[in-house]
Every structure is written in structure tokens, then in C-alpha cells.
Amino acid sequence: MNQILRWKSGLRFYSIKYAAKDTVNYTSTINLPRTKFPTRLAQKARIELERNLIESKFASCYQYQEERHQGAAFILHDGPPYANGDLHMGHAVNKILKDITIRSHVIRGHKVHYVPGWDCHGLPIELKAMAAANAGRKSMNDPIIIRKKSRQFALDAIERQKKQFRSWGVLANWNNISKVYLTFNSNFIVKQLNLFLDLYEKGLVYRDLKPVYWSPSSKTALAEAELEYDANFVSPSLYVRFRLTNCPTAITKESSKHIFALIWTTTPWTLPSNQAICYNSNLTYALVKLESDNKQLHGEDEDRYLIAQSLLEDFQKTTNKICVVEQLIQGHELKNCTYQHPVFREQQSLPFFDAAHVQEFKGTGLVHTAPAHGLDDFIICMKNSISIRSIVNEEGIYDNGAPSYLEGKMVLDNGNELVIKNLKKDIVFVSTLTHSYPIDWRTKKPVIIRASQQWFINTAALKDKAIEEIDKIAVFPRVNAEASKKSLRAQVTKRPYWCISRQRAWGVPIPVLYEKTSGKVLLNKKLLQHICDLTIKEDNIDFWWSQPMEKVLPPSLLNEFNLKASDVVRGSDIFDIWFDSGSTWSQVLENQQAADLYLEGCDQFTGWFQSSLLLSIAARNCTPYKALFIHGFAVDENGHKMSKSLGNIISPKDISAKYGVDSLRWWVAAHGTQHMAINVSHQLVQQSAESLGKIRAILRYLNGSIEDKSLKSSNMLTTTAESYLNRFLLSRLYSFEKEVFSLYDCYEYNRVIACIQNFVTNQISANYIHLIKDRFYCGTTKEIENIRFTLKQCYTLLCKALWPIAPLLVEESWNDSKNFYEDKFQAEPTWKDESVENVMEKALELKRALNQQTKSKNSWLLSLQVNCSKNALNLLQRLHPLNSSSTESELCEILQVNSVNLQSLTAPSAPLDFEIDIVSRSDIELCPRCRRFAIHSNNDIKHDICQRCALCLHLAKEFKIVKMD
């Protein structure tokens, strides 16, 4: 560099220093990955990208596969969500699991049949709709106003829910109204009415007076599936005595002056409805005298009590009373006993009945029997021709058949208190009991069992076939298959009948007319067809409430029934919503067709799984599903159910906005398939986002490495001449694809994620990408082309495995005018080569052994002497010639060392396959371009790059340095 010195004399002197040679930059000569696919996206950009992908890439996906894919369709029948509000994490779990299932078939070229639907009727919608409308009391009693408000409320909820389902990437033909089913649509109603008539004509549907779960707060019957249970409900617990009027013959007349049957109950409000006492003929009963604090009760020395001998100890412990046993009586001797009613004392000869439901686990072995308020009570009284007497109305209020002190009183408010007060002299002991009690799932208020006229399905006639079909179906997750089948069998077996009528306005009316005087049911095919025609014409069934009888029952049909319009009254009952949803298979299945899968939460054992099965067997004598997948419930990080009152609700909308839709989907796949309690927390979703970030980094590298994503652009024959590293990854790719889609077919999505993460981390990143960098960045054109081919297969098959779970990430990475799902990617069976895998596994085993010795040294400066066992030598010699110190073998590339010399172990030291001697070559200088091979000298001329790099740069003859950019 020239330096100029200035002196005061004005003369200039020059000092000359030779300039150093310019450093050559080889970066532009290296084949580095290049891509516009970003490492990450800002939240705003991500949300916009997700919206664009859903509207462009996914909008036509369902229709595309429906039109293009061949073969029998995989049918996933959608259990309808309730159209009553915004979506929660439970909806996200359910719908995303369904979408993962759908996509796992679509990406393999399978045709899929999936029709989303909504359950649009029911009290929750009715109550919310009327509350939102701020309707007055008059409107609450007008069925047409209720129906109008409820329909609009449901439609609004459906639009909101549909928008959010789409925002999660859920595939369906959302814009085609014929590809979505709604239970209030006229075509759905018509099919439901015809199903009802079919079952009625088969004798499987009937009307009867039976005890059912009844909600006074909702004023309607409820199904088991519509109940929740309050574990801390407090009931009175009392022992009450019923005076016998005819005693067992074994009791002498002298002892029979004042004998009482001792009863235990937690529902004293039902005592006025008592009609019998039940006993068990197989039990032994004791005639006892009661004492307390060494004094006789009530001062009546002649009072004696009947109680099961096996329950004496429990009774004494509970009441702190002493039982002095005077006589034992066998249960069968109670057969002809009678007693006086504790409330209606004029009834002096009420019966005793032998009943198997009387057990010796709790109580006294004598059971108060009120057939209007208990199923076992009802059955035993019907068996013995006892007519049912009910004194409680639909609001849970005693009617005029009750004693005057109870008339007009609520049974669950002060009914218990008043009964206890008025039976005080016959109450032996009273306390309270905290126990689990059924409550209305909508109003959260307690229910009662109450006999009323309802429509029922005869489930007893369907049980055997239902159990037979349950045994045939496949159940997932497989680990819980037998327990799940057992649970469903138990639910079907124990169900005595199915009450399908409800007393509300918002629903499908049961299409039955009654003769006013006799109550005779009027129903036939002509009447039903007329109702169906009106439904199609009006596009709803509101006319059932609004139109005069002459329109509902025209003159031609009146003449057929030989009645006048004034002689007929229409039914006021609607169908149970489980009858609505249980018949949805009729919208998506044809003839004897069964869906390949029903996928719902574990609560549907008592709900949709059961109602669909029973109705399909009743109508078609076959199951509506071939397989069930059962998932759990979303709970917070402490395992608590999410609720507004606890303030622990996490919204899927907030999750997808903060972390991304694919992070939400990844969380569902990772946690939604193996546990019944699915923990939700920001920490878990953050972990999902981080896992996706690592996957994104690999996709970015692959995307930038392969340039043209079209598989037609290059080819590679997997011959023995080709790189073992390439063939090894292709062989593992074949196994990976087979394994991951086998897991998809078993709905083990958590294991799919583990499989993908393991393959990305260990096979792609740690092994292949790390080991081929030298050849890929600095190798020959042919080597680079073959690596690109291998990476291309890796990229496309990884995207194929990811697409069902993280479709937005895949489509963003693909970024092509042609959608990813429109191409078909499949590993070739010819790629599978176990001999290649054996060789590579042994080489990688050697690499791990080497890494333990070299620690952080620059391995490219190392030369190895490797003494191998016979087996190891046979495998490794395919990667490196024997007794040669070659620096360019594939084993050198895998081990990332300067040179290797393979020799046989003279004295093998089992179980080790290798003895490694390491020499550090500090005497060599590595090429600045590849940093692998040494710079060579020729005729005392030192060259700046290695021979391999020079060949790649077409400078083999003169090794001249050219100016690089």
C-alpha cells in the first residue's frame, strides 16, 4: 500500500509495501439452499395468510376430491353440534379430529363422504332465543313466536359456528346447502316423520303412562343423556313406620297388636303416592323392639318393628337406637301382609309384593313403593295389576288429589318438609344425606321421577340385535376398545325403554291426532303423507300449531276416520332431540349402508352412539356405523372442567389467533386421542407452536434445496452405484410413509406426531442433511441432482404426512399454483432395501462410537484406523475399500473424517464391533471452499483449493485462481 509522507520542506518521499493477495470468496460457487419461504411470520401476516389459504386452497378441496377421486367413499358421519352459541375447545377437539381423519384419506387419493350437520331443536335454544329477544310472558306461551325466535337464533348460531369451523381448516362443501343437514329443514323433518310412522306400524313405538325423568323447571320429560349429577345434593334421610293391618302368621296374636314395617327413604315427598311395600322373599326379617338411652320409644311398650336381619347393625349405627330381636321371620312369610297408608289412613289394606330389586345393602329390606315416582316401583305394580296414581303435575306441584296441606305446593321446595311435619308421630329417625342427584342439564335444577303419558320406543325388542351389532364394530382408541364396547353394551342393556316425547314448542311435532273423547290415536300413511306434503310446501312444520284442524286433517281424511274436525285434537308433544339426532343417518346413508366411522366424545355412549344404533336397528335391522372413535373432554391444566364461573375458559378463537390454526390442530392431534381428560393450557399450545416451528425450519431447508417441486423434473435410479446415504433415506422414507398412515388409519394421531418428529429429527436432520452437506454444497452436478431427487421425495412425503394435521403450513410451503392435495405422492416399494439399512446402521453405530472419543475436535482433520469385527467389516467395506486410506469414500463422508483405514480385528473383544485409533492431521490445510479435503501441492506450487473443488469449478488443468464475486 502506498503511503505519502509530507515534510515542511515541501518535498515528497515514497515508501513502497507489497499489497497482500485478495482473499477469494467462494460462497457464490456453493450450492446453498435458496427460498422465499420465511423462517417465521408476524402474527398479522400469519392471520392474513391463513385466511387467504382457507379461501383459496381449501375452499374447493372437498369438491375437488368428490369429483376426481375414484372408488367407494370413506363415510364419516358427523354427529351434529348444538346450534346454541359460540364454539369452545370441545368443539375444536371434535371437529379437528374429524378433519384430520378426512384429510388423511384425501391426501392418499381416497374419496371421502362427509356431510356436516347441526342439531337445531331443543330447550337450550328455545330459552336462549327467548331471553335474547327479551320476550314477555305472553310470547313465552305462544308456540309460533317461540318457533320463529328459536329458528332465527339457531340460524345465526349456525353461521357463526360454520365460519369458525372453516377458520380451523375443516374440509366440507360448506357453500352447498344440500351438502349440509339441519334438523329443522323440511326434507329432514319429512324423513323423520316417515321413520316414526314406520316404527309405529312395526309396533316399536307406543304411547303409555310410565314414570320418566321429569324436569319441573323445564316442564318436560328428559332422557338419561339430558341429565347431569350434583354430587353434593342434600336430601332428608328418614326412617318411617307403616302400621301392619295383616301380620305374618308366624307372629302370635299377643305380639301383633302394634307391628310396623320400617321404611327408609330420601324422598318423603313421594310418601303420599305410596301404593305398596316391597320385600325380598330370600331375606330374613327380624321382629324387634326399639330402645334408646335405655328407654322405650314413645313410651309404647307394645310397638314392634319389622326390619331385615342383615341391616340391623347399620340401622342401629345410623340411629343410635338399640334393637332387641324377639323373633325371626322368613321373607316369604310376608306374602299376605297388608298395611295402613301413612297419609291416607282410610286405606287399610295395601299390599306387600315380593321384588328382586329389594337388596340388603342399604335401608331396612322393606321398600316404600310409589309407582308414579320410580321405575322399579312402576314395574312391580304393573306386574301385580295396580293402577298408577299420580298427584304431581308437570310443574312439580301437588294437585287436588294430594292432602289439603300439600295441594298447590312444590314437591322439591317444601313438599319434604310438610310431609315430615305431618307424619311426625310415625317418623322413627330423621337426618340428612349428601349424595349424587340428577339435575336438568339445561336449567341445572333437580329433576324428579314422575309418571306421565308419553311416547316410547320399545328398546327391549331391539336389545339383542343391538348387542350383536356392537360386538361386530371396531372401537378406537384400541387400548380402550373392550372397555368402550362393554360400556356401550351396558348402556343398551340397562335401558328399559326410551321416552321420545317432550312437552315443548321448539321441535318436530309427533304427528299424531287424538279422538277427543276416547283419546284414541289417529295416524296412518295418508295422514302422514298429507302432513309431509304440507311441510314441503310451507318449508317448515309451524302449521301444526298455527293452522286450523281442517287444514291439518282435510275432509277426505276426516271421512276416513268417520269424525268431525271438532271431534279431533292434535298432539302437543315434540320429538326428543335424541330422536332428531339419532335419525341423522337417514340423511347420509342409503339402504343398508353403514358409515365407516362415528367420531364423538365419550358422553355419547348414553347419547348419539346409542340413539343412532337403536333407531337404525329399528328401521333397517343393521348398525349405522362400522367403527367408533371416542375422544375425551377438554379440561384446564388442573383437570377442572372449563366454565365461566371458574374463569378458566380458553377459547379456540383466541388460541388460533395467538399461536396459529396449525398450532391448535397440532395440540388436538397431540393430546386429543389418548386421554379422556384433554388438558388445555397456553403452555401446551406454546409447545405445539414450538414443535411446528422446528418442522417449519426443516421444510424451509428442503424447500430451498430442491428448487423445482415438480417430481417430473428429475429422476434417480436406486442402483448399487448410487450413494448409500441417498438409498438409506429413501428406504426409511418408504417405511415412514407406511407407518405414519397405518397410525392415521388407527386414529392414533398422537403417535403420528411422534413418528413425524422422530423422522424429522433423527432421519432427516441429524443424519441425512447433516451428512450430505459437503456433497450437496460442493459436489458434482450429478451428485447434487441425486441429492435433490432424494430431498424432493423427502419433502413431498413429509408434507403428505403433515398435511392432515398442519395443512396451512404445508400449503404455505408448497406455494404453487397447483394445490398440494392435487398431486399424488407415494414412496416406491423398490426404495425399501434392508441391506442398505444394515450397512448404514453399522456406519452410524461407528460414527456414534467415534463421537464419544473425538468430542469437539474438527473431525475433518482426523485419520482413522478402524479394526472391525467380521460382521462389521462385511458391511462397512461396501462404503470404503479394505486396507485403503482413501479420503473420498462414502464412509469418510458419513464419519466426516479425512481418511479411514478398515482392517479386521485380530482378537475380537465382544461385544464391541470396533477398535478406533485416531490420528490428528495437523500437517494438512483444508480447502477454504469445502472445508473437507486438503489443499494439494504440485511441483512445489501450492494451490488454493482442493482438487475436487477445482474439478467442480472446471479448473482441473491449471488450478488457476479466478476472481470470484
From TrEMBL:
GO terms, biological process: isoleucyl-tRNA aminoacylation; mitochondrial translation
Domain Methionyl/Valyl/Leucyl/Isoleucyl-tRNA synthetase anticodon-binding: 727-852
UniProt superkingdom: Eukaryota
Any Gene Ontology CC annotation: mitochondrion
Pfam families given in the database record: Anticodon_1, tRNA-synt_1
Enzyme Commission number(s): 6.1.1.5
Keyword ATP-binding attached: yes
Keywords (A to Z) from UniProt: Aminoacyl-tRNA synthetase, ATP-binding, Ligase, Nucleotide-binding, Protein biosynthesis
Single GO MF annotation: aminoacyl-tRNA deacylase activity
Alphabetized PANTHER family for the sequence: ISOLEUCINE--TRNA LIGASE, MITOCHONDRIAL, SOLEUCYL-TRNA SYNTHETASE
Name of the molecule in the record: isoleucine--tRNA ligase
Organism: Glossina pallidipes
Phylogenetic classification of the source organism: Eukaryota, Metazoa, Ecdysozoa, Arthropoda, Hexapoda
